[in-house]
Amino acid sequence: MPKRARTLPEAVRRAATEVDLIVHAGDWVTASVLDELAALGPVLGVWGNNDGPDLRARLPEIARTEIEGVRVAVVHDTGAATGREKRMDAAFPDTDLLVFGHSHIPWDTTTPAGLRLLNPGSPTDRRRQPRCTMMTLSLAQGAIRDVVVHEVVRD
User: What are the domain boundaries of the chain?
Assistant: First the structure.
């Protein structure tokens, strides 16, 4: 936003009010998007390559937390798809779940070391994808469950 979509899609706003944590892997583009999501619920986010100094001052490059026994990290860019699993195993050895962005391509794999890699795509900028997307999941008792990629219709 504001180039690909003028507002947050209603589906995103609705989902944001129904979850315990909103995770954003960067490319907010404007601080107003961060502010709007933060008004809807708690946010764990990082800055992306399309974010200026104002967002970089408010957000880390890598965010980490533990939820229900799952060690979570969020980063914007993981590099090329080829070799991603091995690189992320090396870069995030003490992590169970890594959420990343940058490509706007939904991604769900598990590395040889057991690290779950998730990219929700984008609810506002589908890039080379047929649809805009977002992702939901549950974390409980040290496990990642119910990962679902949702198609998002821009308002």
Answer: 10-152
Residue type, 63: A
Identify the residue with better confidence: 154 or 72: 72
Residue 61 has pLDDT above 90, yes or no: yes
Distance CA 106, CA 27 (A): 15
- Cα(141)–Cα(153) distance, integer angstroms: 33
Q: 40, 13 in Cβ contact below 8 A?
A: yes
Tokens of 1: 């936003």
Are 85 and 112 within 8 A, CB to CB? yes
72 and 115 in contact (C-beta within 8 Å)?
A: no
CATH number of 10-152: 3.60.21.10
Q: In DSSP terms, which residues pair with 98 in a beta bridge?
A: 73, 117
Q: What is the pTM of this model?
A: 0.94
Per DSSP, what are the bridge partners of residue 107?
Answer: 119
Average pLDDT, the chain: 94
Is the per-residue pLDDT at 108 higher than 90? yes
